[in-house]
């Protein structure tokens, strides 16, 4: 435990000293939050016409919107699609941090003395994963709260506001956000411990994670049933994948290969 | 306590087809400062990495304080400190933080106390809050040495501690290593610097892929060159050489211009006889002195596999 704690402390101090990463970590989610907030605002103002309503027919079948007026449904439904944005929010920066974390220390030569200390691979990788994911998760939650504050202000009715704190959103925020972040970070760590160039690792991290997420979220959006069960089920699947990825990360971390691969 | 601090039996490491370390057999005593001397690419770093459980031997075995490499790795890591070839500091973090992180990783009880102790010992205390990235090479190396000592390891590996430093920084580091002698620590010092090895080490292994010779610096010299005296005459003359060769205790003799180098078993007793013989033969003896071969001669002749060269008169 103490070892993990030390690694997290080191990573965070380093992050604070690395202003660019810090700004990206905080600003990117905040900028992304502006989008649903703006959508909420304009949907609240926009007149709703019949054609729109027909196009949204399928959405409206969702029991979530039961009993809502067309205007309420419109605002609520459009803002709800932005849930996807909150799920993407904590992925981009952590995956690059994770992708840098091992190969970066290798090229800075700090990996060898680190591996000479009595730290297990699991401790090292857990420390690095938590350090990369926790800030992003917390910032995403913070952005969610910011979104809720604006939703309180801009929602045309309590019913609309309530859709943003319904069980589906809460599961997404409290379960899916952390689980997806851990998934992205684990993939990043695996890439990092198998690659030779930090920049390539970062790019590969982004390249691998985005299609993965797009696939995931796309399928989910395709169901667009957007109900609690779907989210719980997805969370369970992602949790299983996470466990597998963390194990794979430790198994694929070959100390000797990492230290001696490039000469 | 295990009999030896470090023990290697047929320790071998291959990288693909490249045999980096070939069947090393060595036993190093507790508290010994041991020089591992070899040219670039000799396999020094590879050996240290095996002993510090960073890479696995291809065959053979090694023990550190009695713990077997590949079996008790975690325990070995707790008991050794290592200065890697490059310092590998966290450049964006302060000197103090660099040490604190390692003190914690090594489970040091009094983190703040140990960090302060070593920052002061290595004269880095005033710069403790500066980022390691702002340090000179010498200071980085000192910080990395401090980092290796925080947990007071009984065995310390130093991989070319002065190789990348300018002469004055190298001297500071060397002086510090000298202060470590006599603290009871076993020090395994890789170097290609002969003066360093001679000055700091109790024993030296000359190594290039495999062990070439292991002994104290003095014995290494003697083993290779025996003891020699040099005699300078006013004029060279084959007759003088013949006269000396005629003495039965002269083991070998080489003459160059008017100077002869003569290998003897007991110079104190035999030198006067040689001088007398030369004077009788009509030679004017200008001076007589024992030949000291520098360790460099020993080393070059061992590593290059060549014959002993003529030493200088001291
Ligand atoms: N990761 C590696 N892959 C392949 N060959 C290596 C590797 N590391 C070292 N070697 C080879 O092993 C030999 C010894 O290297 P090294 O231990 O670094 O020597 P030294 O530290 O004495 O300079 C060299 O021939 C080097 O090329
Ligand atoms: Mg080396």
Structure keywords:
heterodimer, A: mainly alpha, 14 helices, 83% helix, elongated, B: 314 residues, alpha/beta, six-stranded mixed sheet, binds adenosine-5'-diphosphate, binds magnesium ion
3D structure, described in words:
The complex is a heterodimer of chains A (263) and B (314). With 263 residues, chain A is an all-alpha fold. Chain A has one domain (2-261). Chain A contains 14 helices and no strands. Chain A has helices at residues 2-17, 19-45, 50-55, 57-60, 70-81, 83-88, 92-107, 111-115, 121-154, 158-163, 167-194, 198-223, 228-252, 255-260. In chain A, α2 packs antiparallel against α5 (70-81) and α7 (92-107) packs antiparallel against α12. The mean pLDDT of chain A is 85. Chain B is an alpha/beta fold and 314 residues long. Chain B has two domains: 6-215, Rossmann fold, CATH 3.40.50; 224-286, 2-Layer Sandwich (Alpha-Beta Plaits), CATH 3.30.70.100. Chain B is built from eleven helices and 15 strands. Chain B has helices at 44-51, 73-79, 95-105, 111-121, 137-149, 167-180, 194-200, 217-225, 238-245, 267-280, 295-303, and strands at 6-15, 18-28, 33-37, 59-64, 67-68, 80-83, 155-159, 186-191, 203-208, 210-215, 227-233, 252-256, 259-264, 285-292, 312-313. In chain B, a hairpin with a 2-residue loop joins β4 (59-64) and β5 (67-68). In chain B, α4 (111-121) crosses α5. Chain B is elongated. Chain A binds chain B through residues 2-3, 5-6, 9-10, 13-14, 17-18, 108-120, 255-256, 259-260, and chain B through 15, 49, 52-56, 74, 77-78, 80, 82, 84, 86-93, 97, 101-102, 104-107, 131, 144, 147-148. Adenosine-5'-diphosphate (ADP) binds at residues 15, 18, 20, 38, 40-46 of chain B.
